[in-house]
Amino acid sequence: MASAAEIDDEQQHFDRAAEAREHAKSAAGDAANAAAHAAAAAQLAKYANQHQDALGATGSAVAHGRIDEAGEDPLYIGKHLIRDHRRQEILVIGWQAPAAQRYYRATHADPRGLTRKRTFHCTGNTIDDFTDVVFTAAAPDRPQGPDGALLRALAEGRTGSMRDIVATIQAAQYEVIEAPLDTVLVIEGGPGTGKTAVALHRVSWLLVNHPDQLRTSGVLVVGPHPTFTRYISTVLPGLGERDVVQRDITQLGPPVSRGRPESVPLSRIKGQARMAGLLARALQQRLGRPEPAERLQIDGRFVTLPGADIGAVVAELRDGPGPYAQRRTQLRAVLTGLLERRGVTAVPARQRSVDNLLERLWPQLSPPALLRDLLGSRDRLRAAAGDEFTAAEIAQLRRRGADRLSEQIWSRDDLPLLDEADFLINGSPAERYGHVVVDEAQDLSPMQLRSIARRSATGSLTVLGDLAQSTGPWARDSWDDVTAHLPGTHPRTIAQLRYGYRVPRQVYEFAALLLPIAAPLTAPTEVVRDGPRPGIHRVEAADRAGRAVAIAQAHVAERRFVGIICPPTCRPDVEAALAANDVAWSSADRGELGNAINLVSPQESKGLEFDAVVVVEPEDIVAGDEHGHRMLYVAFTRTVGHLDVVCVGEPLPMHVAALAPAGGEPPAPTVPSLGPDALARLAGEVAERVRRQSPSDQWDEVLREAAKLLRD
Ligand SMILES: Nc1ncnc2c1ncn2[C@@H]1O[C@H](COP(=O)(O)OP(=O)(O)OP(=O)(O)O)[C@@H](O)[C@H]1O
């Protein structure tokens, strides 16, 4: 604990900086009032608001850190630059400034000239305490364990909104944050290694350090589902960035009615990149052929255009560049030109016989109309499929469309197809960004990735995920399968985060027993802190839901933020138990998390975290997905503190023969043996790595060696 005198000294600096900040904010407001007319005033007011936001909220801490170097004045680091208005002296530098880098990158092994790094703990702008890391030349080999400030931040209770980590970003995380803009950067790491937090801070860092490229074009952050988007939505505004667009993956593409369910096999077909070719061919096949002679009535006289001339123009435009709608406009212009050459002067913009001919040759189409008509017709599907789809696949794709387009309900897998159709018809989306961040990217289909890729104006992307958490119809085992569908304009880099900050060691070790089956080649994360052991509660089926709710209530009584992660099979019982006990709860499928008990499906739990997690019936979670062990690994790793597993029979990981009841000592974990499926997956993965990392002329030899080793 810092001494009162030291805290007083620091507080004086904080008070001075707070006063300077208020002065800067009111000066920004005054500038807006000085505008010459209303339009300029509105514009200036917008800039003033942005500037005031960027300076930070009144009453918030002006700084979170300080660095000391021998013979130099200390530097205070906060979310925003603050100058003394009288002397123009810098009181606090923004955390993204190059001068702040050493606060984050200094380690005992490489202190970068610093003698000390101080992290403040504040309530508003009042300093409660601070934690120091002292760098001494005598201890360069000291291992860099988690410092007190980090452990303190990790121990804080969670809520339904993610917090920034600006005060305690770790050296390896900062290195990823400041990676070059012109990259496709993949950030991979186990659960709770800070991928999401790092990516959001990277956005803020990029906006400050690359204003010319990004301030006008903007940044887009794409998450896996609405609850996640809402959960992370306060981080960037808290860092002073209000203009970053945050969407979930289903919000890309034309606005349509959603909610149609889709089978897994159909999801697999619809997500494949070859669907893009199917749509492009389907669009071409909508083009018509002219009659040998096209007779048009214009202003009471008939004009005949030779079909061969028109056909040649249509063929040229069909094979030409540009979106479909733009080429349609070009065709109209050419038709008008042909008419003018036959003496028709000034063809009006709307002329019925020209419009009719144009509609026959090059029909006006919306993305939903194209897709509905395609999926609704076996003949259209067959014609567009060529050799690329089997008859069985065509039969699977075919479905009866709604009679009225406005009544059509679309599935999640239709959305990227509509977006692709929109691209083919209308060209690149109106909203393109200087940088795009994609979270939980390991689960996205090629068609979803294409949809994201076309929103990056320059090919600059940050892609984050964890292959060991990859589930669903598009579960991945390699990042190559993801990046193959992203723009190739910039180099691709994979950055790994090794340290797990969320999950306590005792819970992580339990969850990691699933890894040999879930993701055999994944190295476990290195956990930085301890916590309570998982509680295993074996119950009768009739008591399962009631017990889960009772455990959740006990956590709420301790003021914990709780997630009950429950497979669909158990959900009605759990909802009934919550109702029977008159417990207020929130449902993640309504896009929002409450402050107490939240009922969450395993899929929705991705990316979220709670103080306490109650996992209901692991076996059903495993059974619910082809990569069910990964899904369970996700569910187990959502906790910052407590994990309780409520089950009938074994809690999984099944190979842990007998786990002690809640609070008891579990036996030492045993290494699970691999079943035939897991072994086949492992073999496939080894072969894939050999292919990726060895020159092709050595594959056979390396694989023969590997087979021999396995036989022996
Ligand atoms: N340097 C840090 N300082 C303080 N907290 C941190 C730090 N790094 C990560 N955390 C915390 O660890 C938790 C996990 O972070 P985050 O959700 O970004 O991890 P993730 O790798 O995206 O996890 P998952 O793959 O499970 O979604 C968050 O509560 C985050 O605030």
UniProtKB/TrEMBL annotation:
Region (Disordered) residue spans: 1-31
Q: Can you name this protein?
A: ATPase AAA
The protein's organism comes out as Dactylosporangium darangshiense
What domain of life does the UniProt record list for this protein's source? Bacteria
Which residue numbers delimit the UvrD-like helicase ATP-binding domain? Answer: 168-504
- Annotated positions binding ATP: 189-196
TM segment ranges: none
Q: Which SUPFAM superfamilies match?
A: P-loop containing nucleoside triphosphate hydrolases
Q: Where is the composition biased (Basic and acidic residues)?
A: 10-25
Which key words tag this protein in UniProt? ATP-binding, Helicase, Hydrolase, Nucleotide-binding
